Amino acid sequence: MSAGTHTVTATYSGDSNFTTSSGTDTQTVNLASTTTAVSTTPDPSVVGQSVTFSATVAPVAPGAGTPTGTVTFVATDGVTTVTLTGTLSGGTTSVTTNGLVTAGVYVVTATYSGDADFTGSTGADTQTVTQASTTTALSSSPDPSVVGQPVTFTATVAPVAPGAGTPTGVVTFVITGGPTLAGTLSGGTATVSTNALGVGTFPVTATYSGDLNFTGSSGSDTQTVAQASTTTAVSSLPDPSVFGQLVTFTATVAPVSPGAGVPTGTVTFVIDGGGGGTLTGTVAGGVATVTTSTLDAGLHNVTATYNGDTNFSTSSGTDTQTVNQASTLTTVSSFPDPSISGNAVTIFAFVVAQPPGSGVPTGTVTFTVTDGVTTVTLTGTVDGSGVAAVSTPLPTGNYTITGVYSGDTNFTGSSDTDTQTVI
Question: At CA 344, angle to CA 406 and CA 395, rounded to 5?
Answer without folding.
Answer: 95
